[in-house]
Design goal:
This protein is α+β, with helices and mostly antiparallel strands and 578 residues long. It is 39% helix and 17% strand. It contains 19 helices and 16 strands. It has helices spanning 22-28, 60-64, 71-85, 117-121, 184-195, 200-211, 221-233, 240-254, 278-287, 331-344, 359-368, 378-388, 392-403, 408-421, 428-435, 457-470, 477-503, 514-523, 526-537; strands spanning 67-68, 89-94, 97-98, 101-102, 104-109, 142-148, 153-160, 259-264, 270-276, 290-296, 306-312, 318-325, 352-355, 373-376, 553-563, 568-577. The strands form 4 sheets. It has a 7-stranded mixed sheet with strand order 8-9-12-11-10-13-14, with helices on both faces. The chain has a 5-stranded antiparallel sheet with strand order 1-7-6-5-2. A two-stranded antiparallel sheet has the order 3-4. The N and C termini lie far apart (72 Å).
Length: 578
Amino acid sequence: MEASETAESIHLSDDTEEAIHLSDIEEAIHLSDTEDNKTDEPIDLEVSWEDVLDYRKLTVEDVMAKMFKTLEEAEKFYYSYALAIGFGPRRDTRGGLFEGELRRRQWVCNKQGYRDKKWLDRETDGSGRNRRKLTRQGCMAKFRVNYMVDEGYYAVRAFDEDHSHQCANPRQAAFIRSHWNVDEAALGNTNTMTKVSIRPCHAFEYMVEQSGGYITVGFTRKDLYNKLDQQRRTTPFESDSEGALSYMSALAAKDPHFYCRFSVDDEDRLVNIFWRDGNSYVDYMCWGDVLVFDSTYNTNVYGRPLVFFVGSNNHRGSILFGVGILGDETADTYTWLLSTFLDSMKGKKPTAVITDGAESMHIAIGRVMPEARHRLCSWHLSRNAHTNLNSKDAEKAFNGCMNKFQTVQHFEEMWEVMLQEFELRNHFWTTWMYGKRQLWAQAFFGDVHMAGMRSTQRSESMNNFVKDTLGAGKKKMVDIVPQMDRAHMRLRNNQVRDDFKTMNSFPVIETHLEDLEGHAASTYTYDVYKWVKKEIMKEKFLVTKGFQAAARMTIQCTKWQISSGNNMCTRLCTTTGD
């Protein structure tokens, strides 16, 4: 793993947290008359409906006879009892320590006591927010255990079962705050589902279905989101970028050919970053002749473009050579990215590059890889034609000039016909496009291997694929890097699948040129074979000119020849006849 600049602390500014009003915090803390009457840290007890089925039958005598080895057992008992009855408990007073054990612990109903008078008399702060509803009703229900030193266990010394309020019924008990608990299993399931693009709300519905209903799942959807947010905020990394770089360091430890380079600004903040793994290097060495270079947006909270280097493998499937996140889209930034990409690939340059037409990309390609043929995306040009031309027939004529396999001379003739027929001779857009025709017209790419690609649609499909992998919402870098790693896994699994299908099946020969089709089927992968087969099918439309057919005639084709002067494909044939 390499860095273009070193810094002790590299950080990106995280999302600004919501402002927390001090008055809300103070209002949420309700103190009783005694100094010790305070709630402790949040309680994480796994109490389910299976634990509470028989608690409604308990009498005061049954509870007073209970003994517990630990405070945790006593607490779980009272929470289970509270869930069965329909109220929420909270910790109250406690005694001092004796040989490491609390001598006394008391729990009360969460409606114990009353809200402090100062909160009732407080005027609104002008924010327009409603004051909290009253929940305290002076309930006297309580449960206290004392530590019996001689016996070594906790015994119940006080229990009051009477409540000053109506208790919740079983269908409402799930909404009592004291019984909300997103356990580690539920959190782990949600994290796993998030990795495969399942949103937390859908993960919650899945757990509701698994548990038998909203009552028995043990928490609400909001609780799950709060737990996930708490998990993100307790990350051991000081910044988002530090977490992303740490993840890449772990990848580099497993993959000796992993490559990462980044740059920072004067304040040691991460600006640009590029990374690829060892398999991407092998893929590029095999299939890196044609490179699709494109960016996508709305994937991260910083609004920075996510850039893909995409190609096509021997199954005509998409492969990902590398990924970059940039601070901006200037020519200098793209120059840095392309130079870094080539450095990671040991200097091997593609023969052709396809982009969406951004001028900054065009400048960067001219600087870094001037030998590569730069081609503009035909899909983007078709959309521009739809916007700038005055009729569908004119659009069709333009697309014909752009996509038809023909000579340069034929292109010039078609272009002249289009200008005359649709009165476009002085049209600004067509004049501008003609000036850079060598970047988009198929007639100028007859001698260049393009791997069957004319547009960045493969990259656009990759954009959709990646956004589907990332899921809904804008992500932080620490989320994007693992998800991109997973996107690599999915693409390579597709390639292994295609390899298996090609190895274990053979296409049925259907054309009249059986030997030629059979040779293509045995030489190429199935997806490339289908491409060749379409060309074989076109053979029946060939017209032979220049001689008179005899009663019996044999035509033997010896080879294909490409004349680079006028981009004309010529098939050399010999003929004999009776």
